[in-house]
Amino acid sequence: MDESSNPQIALNDEERFPLLDDLSFLNKLRQDEFAPKFNFKSGDRLNAANLLKVKAHKKSYYDQKIFWTEGSSPIWLSDYLQWCVKTVPFYQNKNNTLESFSTIAREDIRKHPHLFVSNEANLAELLVYYTSGSTGPKLDVLFDTATQAKWLPQIESVLEDFRISIKKGKKTTAIALICAQEKTLTYASLSTYLEGAGILKINLNPADWNQPEDAKKYLEKYNPQILTGDPIAFTALMDLEPKLSPSAMISSAMKLTKVTKNKLESYFRCPVIDLYSMTECRNIAYATEKGHKVIRPDLYLEVFDEHKDIPLPYGERGELVVTGGSNPFLPLIRYRTGDFCSLIIENGAPYLIDLEARNPVVFFTKSALKINNIDISNSMSQFPLAGFKMHQRKDKLIQFVGYSNEIIAEEIIAVLNGIFKNDITLDVNIQKISQNNTVEKTQYSSELISN
Question: What distance in Å separates the CA atoms of residue 391 and residue 113, rounded to the nearest whole number?
Fold first, then answer.
């Protein structure tokens, strides 16, 4: 994390947790003999009014999930557009119909972040997050405390489909975000929404711990109910062979292959849920056999042509576009995600079909036959890869870097040769996963320009 991205204003614990009188469990998490060298302090800052907002949001949208049907729009959309036009400078001088809005992109937010802030937003509650920059320059994303805390009802909504609930209370660790990076913020915190339950963010890098075995001992001692992270971090955690009993693991940020998912589920004996989310609007959908099932009734999803400002019919593939959310610092109307899929509605629920994160990339054989990256993604799902990158040079050589602790280079070469009709030169490198990885999230790139 860049030094300039570090928080500039320090709060005390009473300000971080205004509704929690007993912070003894927080102190226990921080001061445990096996605790990591935490480098940050975090809290949800929820007061009574904002806690009510979070609970009301859950009741309105998640207790009964009512989406929309083909040919119609959500019941909340008209009021939302009217509110945006009235209070958000970027959307002024627009009509109150969705058709009057053109799509917006990441660069609009980067250039004019202040224009997306509603004049009803409470600046005293401003929180700033930033995206990793894996698909471009880093982007500051603004939230308020209530919007930030709503990620928990979103997670609960996913877990309900698996008949899993999060136990509340000040004596339990609800969620641990697992990282395996060279450097990241780490902290112990509490959730006011979960009645004082513990929230951890830890990094498995041995440099973050006093003793090499402390990471395993600390996690075993507090045994978080839910583990979140990416496939790299989960694979690194599995290599430590901890004795944990999570109710579920939620993977995001990178593609989760079927083999890696199966290995994690076999070891941890719980569902491993592949979640699709974005910093700009948080959680959106999770992977099923049918496609990614949408979990957010407060988001309206459309699919647009990649190059033209034209919405596509249901079932046609294009760029996913998002409208909605409940963030007064960044209300979204037709925001291009940079991710590609087709959209269908089945049994009242929207599904994202063949979701591919970020721009589709076309690769070429030596004889100029086009190869779609979706075919590559599907083929890589059979391998125990926690992540991979694939790049084609101007001379058409394919460079493949995979992250796995198993010897699978020859198998991957064989599969890629099959996809490319044995008409390609390959450079395949499988890198071992450790507890302090430096991994770029962008999967596909090419120096060749396709029309």
Answer: 33
| Residues 6+ positions from 289 with CB-CB distance below 8 Å | none
pLDDT tens for each residue of 158-181:
999 999 999 999 999 999 999 988
State phi, psi for 346 to the nearest 5 degrees: -135, 125
Integer CA distances (angstroms), 22 to 25, 223, 379, in order: 8, 21, 51
SS3 106: helix
User: What is the reported pTM?
Assistant: 0.84
Cα-atom radius of gyration of the chain, to the nearest Å?
Answer: 22
Angstrom distances, CA of residue 433 to CA of 237, 285, 308 = 10, 27, 41
Domains of the chain: 3-355 (3.40.50.12780), 362-446 (3.30.300.30)
- The predicted-structure confidence for 88-147, as pLDDT tens digits, reads as follows 999 998 888 999 999 999 999 988 999 999 999 999 888 887 665 444 456 778 999 999
What are the distances in angstroms from CA 359 to CA 302, 335, 421? 16, 15, 24
C-alpha distances in Å from residue 351, one per residue of 39, 290, 355: 39, 8, 10
Q: Which two structure tokens, joined as six digits, stand for 115? A: 């224009």
